Structure formats: C-alpha cells, structure tokens
Amino acid sequence: xxSRFVVVPAVPTETGxxxxxxxxxxxxxxxxxxxxxxxxxxxxKAVYPTRAEAEGDCQKLNQERLQYTLSGQEG
Length: 75
What we know:
With about 80 residues, this protein is an alpha+beta fold. It has one domain. The protein is built from 1 helix and 5 strands.
C-alpha cells in the first residue's frame, strides 16, 4: 500500500540573479523538505528544514489518515 503522504525535497525558491558575462545565474534559497499528498497530487505548503522533522509530521498525518479510514469502516 502506498502512503498518502510522503517526504520530498523542496523546490528551491529564487532569491535573485546575477550576471556573469552574457549569462544570468539564478540564486536560490537553501532547500528543505515538503510533504507530498499522493491522493490530491500536490505539495503541502509547509517547508521543513530537516528530513527528520518532515518524516515526523509525515508519519503523524499518515497515522491520522489511517485512524480516520478505520473508524469510517467500523461505523
């Protein structure tokens, strides 16, 4: 079974650009981690600085989803 939420590397955000000759180079902010919702096919907005923090919230969300699913089947 595929987990609904998984940890993925965050998309870098552009913070500016610099020119070197005829080329422009994009400066980006340091990466972090996002949670990805496999059911809705989108990234959640929260950005975690470490994978461990993201994994903790990911497990929490997956556990809550499992509890909700199980309680729905019992009722």
